[in-house]
Design goal:
The chain contains four helices and five strands, in the order ββαβαβαβα. It is an alpha/beta fold.
């Protein structure tokens, strides 16, 4: 069965109030992330899937993010199959940073993409 091309969006086009799901690992998240993003590492994703479904029970779109777009593409594919409105953020956090989009850290140190 072919699901067609994976829905994706350029990092610069993610709305500022968009719901971002960050699937990177803890050390990557700690280095810098999108403020307000939900962090569920891909390695924990299946176990913690309920956290995401609760967060988007209103049907809003999920912008899935990793470092460059590979892991997030896999998670986006999975979410689309679960009938969740999900799009992959092309280029991930590297593209986000490159587009000059804001990043934060939990400890207030300067944010960067690991």
């Amino acid at each position: 069965m072919n699901f067609g091309p994976l829905p994706s969006v350029d990092a610069a086009a993610v709305p500022s109030e968009g719901f971002v799901l960050d699937v990177r690992e803890d050390d990557e998240w700690a280095a810098g992330h999108v403020e307000g993003a939900l962090h569920i590492p891909m390695s924990d994703f299946v176990v913690r899937f309920g956290e995401l479904t609760e967060a988007v029970e209103d049907g809003r779109r999920v912008y899935v993010m990793c470092r460059v777009g590979g892991r997030s593409a896999q998670v986006t594919q999975y979410l689309v199959r679960q009938d969740i409105d999900a799009v992959n953020v092309d280029g991930g956090m590297q593209a986000w940073d490159g587009a000059g989009r804001p990043m934060v850290t939990d400890n207030g140190s300067p944010a960067f993409v690991l």
